[in-house]
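pls read this stuff:
=====
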Amino acid sequence: MLNFSREKYLKVTGGALGLREEIEKIVNQVYEKEFKNIFLIGSGGAVATFYPFEFMINATSTIPAYAEIAAEFILQNHKQFSKDSLVILSSLSGTTQETVAAAKYCKERGATTIGLTGEYNQPLAETVDYPIVNFAENDYASDSNQLILYLLLFKLMHKNGDFPEYDAFAMQLEELPEKLMEAKEQFEPKAEAFANAYKDEPYHMVVGSGNTWGRAYSYAMCVLEEMQWIKTKSIHAAEFFHGTLELVEEDTSVILLKGEDETRPLMERVERFAEKYTKKLTVIDTKEYELAGISAEFRKYLSSIVTSSLLQRISVHLEEKRNHSLDIRRYYRTVTY
């Protein structure tokens, strides 16, 4: 595969899964303290990664969960937040100003805090009560964070009596990195074909729902816009027919991220519409990937990580075909704002 290191990928994902014992100890400790709700706080791609987990918790557990954008959360005076909240924050660098500020805000108010990051000795890790650290660069950070969150949040739900299948689920996660690489290899020709066909495309619509909505939001904003400077709109499938459909023409690029959770019918509705009105429809459907060894009952939870893992291959090919590095920025962390 183009610009892909199997060794590096397995090191990063293996590092995340290798934290299982540490994560479960943290869960046991915070559960003994007791908490009344969970706040998932981040900025940009980090909060987008939390969105599917907010959906999963609220669809699976009786624990109320709130995914919040760090900068807004500090200003909002959220009435569900208190010293009895469990707060999970995420910043790969550990230096994202808004997220670090949110961590300090939560600590000052007595909430229990957990921080997901790729670096020790950085502000987020030094601020939170429980840092969970796995080194990962941008290319594989999403998979690393999601694997950690599967262990962390599903163990919390298990402790709450909502997910008795946790042990089986966690065991199957051990096999997931290999299965994701198989999915990447299967998707590789499609990723290259997409990049060839759309390297000069000026605008995309990216549609998701349920466990893929966060991926639609982050891929539009953090990759196509930030890393490739392509105008893009992320649309929730449930809202597609409340405005966005009017902008679809036969040459409009529409990218659908179809998962396997309860909201799949919403995506199928958009797909039926798009098939009629645009010649530029791309469907990425997690059902097309075998994931041998993963139980059918767990597949819906994995739609997010499968989708993001496949989208990484499109990113690499766009970078090459457009001759536009994924690392170059005009403004982000380059100028004062």
Observations:
- The first strand starts at residue 37 and ends at 42.
- The chain has a mean pLDDT of 97.
